[in-house]
Amino acid sequence: MLTGCRSLSWTFFSLTYRRLCTRRSLTSQAALSFSASTVSSIPPYTHSHCFFTSQQASVPLYSSLHSLSAHCSGLMELKEVLQVLEQLAPLSLAESWDNVGLLIEPSKSRPVKTILLTNDLTDPVMEEAEAMNCDLIISYHPPLFRPIKRLVQKDWKQRLAIRAVEAGIAIFSPHTSWDSVKGGVNDWLVGGLGSGQVSVLSQALGGASHSHKLEFTVRSTEELNTVMEELKACDSETTLQHSVGRPDNSGIHASVTCSDSALTPSVQTLLRHNAPSLSFSILKLEKPPLPGHGQGRLSVLDQPVTVATAIQKMKSHLGLSHLRLALGLGQTLESSVCTVAVCAGSGASVLNGVKTDLYITGEMSHHEVLDAVAKGTNVILSDHSNSERGFLAVFREKLAVRLPDSVTVVVSKADRDPLEVV
Predict the structure, then answer these.
(1) Helix residue spans in 123-259 (DSSP H)
(2) Do the Cβ atoms of 328 and 208 come closer than 8 Å?
(3) Name one GO molecular function term (predicted).
(4) Which of 43, 259, 305, 331 could form an SS bridge with 309, CB 3.0 to 4.6 Å?
(5) Residue 65: strand, helix, or coil
């Protein structure tokens, strides 16, 4: 009976999803992050997709039913939008130093009807958000980054935070999670020069909760059960994974994995039970790599271009009339570019040491540019946020296809880089 109900549910989901997609005339086929065969069988929220990946993670049936209800009613709560954002770019991909996620949450819950996308939250952008009665601002750069001790009007970022709270506007920032995710900002940026064999410069690693493996020996099954009960008390927030080897003359060999926070109490527990003559070891578990995810991209171009052509292509891709160029030692505008390394924003720390014909990023210091030039590498700089802003339109399509028609997603018209060529 359960199988039959689930089959009927998926059929209902599929039909509903086709209708939703049909009504979205603004969403091009290229903007969809799933294949045609996937769309015909999988409804929104049933599986988790990064921008252009096929990586999937199942979601409980109740979650799918609840999300479908939101589509049918035309209403969507903030927490549901946050779930979609997490599916598109998991916050676990962000750098450890970053401040990502929900930064401001209104005290009164209300349906999300208007979402404003911006690269930076500034006074003009806030005025734009207030004028359209915006419910959620997705600001690529986090407007709140460092810890603050007070909220006062004299600091412009605190002033914007106060205005958002007073207007009941939620603020979310994805920042480096968008940079790292496959199909995110850096893949969009490197695509400006055309197709190629793309690889990640700084590989993202999985955020496994268990980071240590403890191998030990106990004398009996009774002692093993006692030890496991005590270990569970040490690591109550996670489920202990353990294995038991065959007992022999030296005792029962067992192992458990635990989190960083549970390492010390777990070791103390095992030492209490472990006799000096019995074995005990601690192993550090390596986090698995996440293929396609990470900071920066390197592309071996399918069709090499000249430096001059690369400049024109990037101007068109970024929507800019001017770029800054530093020719590498021995290079000219007619020199061939076969490989390119990119990092959105301020990318020198990621690009440094990468052997390639061309660096593309938003900004680098004077001496960082000199270092690259001395090694024969050409450098194109667009200014910081100009290397990121164009992705907002791409993300708008990715987000809009997953939301009900009652939710309007808008790219800010007031958002711009503070620097311009005069």
Answers:
(1) 123-131, 156-167, 176-180, 185-190, 221-234
(2) no
(3) metal ion binding
(4) 305
(5) helix
Can you give the pLDDT at residue 245? 65
pLDDT digits (tens, 9 = 90+) for 343-373: 999 999 999 999 999 999 999 999 999 999 9
Residue 384 among known ligand-binding residues? yes
Superfamily for the 2-179+392-411 domain: NIF3 (NGG1p interacting factor 3)-like (3.40.1390.30)
> What CATH number does the domain located at 212-284 have?
3.30.70.120
The domain limits of the chain are 2-179+392-411, 194-204+292-382, 212-284
194-204+292-382 and 212-284, same CATH topology:
no
Taking the C-alpha atoms of residue 283 and residue 209, their distance in angstroms, rounded to an integer, is 15
pLDDT for 184 equals: 98
Amino acid at 123: D
> Tell me, which fold does domain 194-204+292-382 have in CATH?
3.40.1390
Distances (CA, A) of 309 to 57, 315, 332, 360: 41, 10, 12, 14
Tokens representing 337 are: 């570019």
Q: Length of the chain, please?
A: 422
Contacts of 357 (CB under 8 A, 6+ apart): 328, 335, 336, 337, 338, 339, 340, 377, 378
388 is in an annotated binding site: yes
Strands 280-284 and 212-218: antiparallel
List the structure tokens of 303: 């069709």
Give tens-digit pLDDT for 306-337. Answer: 999 999 999 999 999 999 999 999 999 999 99
Provide the b/e sequence for 292-325 (b: ≥16 CB within 10 Å).
bbbbbbbbebeebbebebbbeebbebbebeebeb
Q: Helix (H, G, I), strand (E, B), or coil: what is residue 114?
A: strand
Nearest alpha carbon to residue 379 among 401, 349, 356: 356
DSSP secondary structure letter of residue 314: H
The conformational region for residue 420 under phi > 0 = left, psi -120 to 50 = alpha, else beta, is beta
